[in-house]
Specification:
Blueprint lengths: L4 H12 L11 H10 L5 H8 L3 H11 L11 E3 H8 L3 H10 L5 E2 L7 E4 H8 L16 H14 L3 E3 H8 L3 H9 L6 E2 L16 E4 H4 L14
Length: about 230
Amino acid sequence: MPKNIDALIALAVKSAEGARVHSRKWTPGEDAFLTANLGKLTDAEIGKALGRTQIGVHLRWSRDLQLSSPSKAADVLTAHQAARMLGIDGHKIAHWVDQGFIPGRLMAGGRKIRLIYRKVFTAWVLDHDHWMYFDIAKVQDEELKKSLIEEAKLWGDEWWDTPRVAKHHKVHVGDVKRYIQHGRIKATQISYSYGGRHPNPSWKLWFVLRSEATRKGLKFVVRRHKK
């Protein structure tokens, strides 16, 4: 079997143009199985399950059924497409899919393409608990950004990182972290690192709701810091 299977398939498609490859007729059940597993299984795996060749399976979905490639289907996004929508690095989304933070899956084959259903991704993005992981102002997709702005207005709150809390109270970041550690400020530590390169929990940032950071009665007793 040639190493470049894509080239082999392309050659087979070209040679089949204008003429049908005579083989046993595809059944509705086989078409349903192919459609349901396209992108979840490789063409070779689908062919093995149905007793057909890899090229025969590829021709069936691409030429006869005219189905979209798994990575180009209207209802899915690749990790890199999702990252461009949010204006962040593609490796972050890929890592989060691998960790199960964003529901998704690997496309069948060895290309390491992560697929996310659009509706699932939109729901994930609009969840307030995930707004610590990206900056709404940097979102590139206009429709998604509009939805986020509307949702933010309805929520009426926002996440502040510890430097912003410190700046608001005119204290050191260490003072804010100390208050978090002592339970004087309610805070949330992100569950997943931004790029997956720092699995150590000490690298995972803390965030505080603005309503908590600005609540009445919150005052800092500042420690002296060595210069």
